[in-house]
Amino acid sequence: MSNNTNHSFSFDTIATIESPYQEKFAIPRQPNLVSAAKGKVILIGDANNAELIRGIEEFSHLWLLFVFHGTKDQGWKPLVRPPRLGGNVKTGVLATRSTFRPNPIGMSVVKLDRVTTDNKQTILHISGLDLLNGTPIVDIKPYIPYSDAIIHANGGFAQAKPESNITVNFNIQAQADLAKHATLHTKNQQAECDLALLIEQVLKQDPRPAYKQGKVDDKVYAMSLYNLNIQWQFTSLTNIVVLSVTIIPSEMTGSDLENKIPSNKPLNSKANIT
Description:
Blueprint: E1 15-18, E2 38-43, E3 61-67, E4 79-80, E5 91-92, E6 105-118, E7 121-127, E8 136-142, H1 145-148, E9 167-170, H2 172-180, E10 183-185, E11 190-192, H3 195-204, E12 221-225, E13 228-236, E14 239-247, H4 255-258
Parallel strand pairs: 9-14
Antiparallel strand pairs: 1-2, 1-8, 2-7, 3-6, 3-8, 4-5, 6-7, 10-11, 12-13, 13-14
């Protein structure tokens, strides 16, 4: 038996994710917290073969193994600050699900809604995802309830699902915007979803940094879902008002998205909130 443990491995991407989440900000911290999030697993290369997934529709949920492509170039540290601990306590990275890992590999359970094959392109339609748009998938496995759901397991500092008492309301402008964007058009396809419910479920998670949670500030925040820019603001500890929902110009990508509005800019008037 070899004592050499310095092995390296190379994997091919077998699929990419089409997701409503266009940037890291506002992605749920775990899967299935936002059931209204709809996405696609688009098989590519040699894996784009319907034979590979024959029988997969017998399973309601799937494990997706993926690469944290959006943060892998930022490296990692042995200690991180988990959001569930308020961002103030350092914990070993391997005792968390931080994206900044020695190997930037993640795993996520998603609901399998249906499978389609059109023009030789096989797609798994999923929901409840917590993945950045364009995420590379390196493996797919069926979720097996009897072995994967360990009812009495100890979950450490994340034993229970986080509870939220936040209510989300849409002002008059946002309601009008929602009526216009009931059907979303993404770059390559038309995505049907309950947009208002998606926005509500995402915001109820309070996507702000952990150190700001439980605090009120008067800043206007923005998040990107599909090709839409959603502006919102806390008005109390338990209430968020959505201010507007607008189309992001197609030429805006990458760092342009991060700078689309000054997120620390306060509203000019509280009268904007209705």
